[in-house]
Amino acid sequence: AFRAEALVLLAGGSVLAAVLVTAFVPPVPRTRTTLVVAGLLSGTFGTAVGIGGPPLALVYAGSRGPEIRGTLGMIMLTGLPIGIGSLALSGHLGLGEIVAGLTLWPAIAIGYLLARRVQANAESWIRPLVLSVSAFGAVVAITRTLVVA
Prior knowledge:
- 77% of the residues lie in helices and 0% in strands.
- By secondary structure, the protein is mainly alpha-helical.
C-alpha cells in the first residue's frame, strides 16, 4: 500500500531536485505543455502535500518580478479558497481546518497588494527568492514528515 508519507517525500524530493536544476540551467520556456504540467503538479502537490506553489513558481523563476508577482499572487489568492472549498465539499476537512486555512487568505491578499510596492526593486533578487522559498517549502514538508513518521 502507498503511504501518504511516501507522497510527501516524493513531492518534496521532486521540488528540491527541480530547484537545483532550475538554479543551474537556463529558465524553462513557458509553453502550453510546461504550464499544464506545472499546473497539474502544483494542484496535486498543493492538495496532497501542502506545497503547491513551487512547481508553478519554478516555471516562472526566469520571469521579471512584476510578471511573477502578478501571476503567482493571483494563483495563490484564488487557489486557497478554491482548494479549501473543494476539500471541504468532498468531506476531507472539518470546520476547524477550514477556518484555519481561511485565516491565511487575508495575509495572502495583503502580501499581494504590498508586493506592488517592492516589485520595482525586486529584479536582482526575485529568482534567488523564488528558488529559496520553493526549497524551504520542500524541506519543511520533508522534515515534518520524517519527524512525525
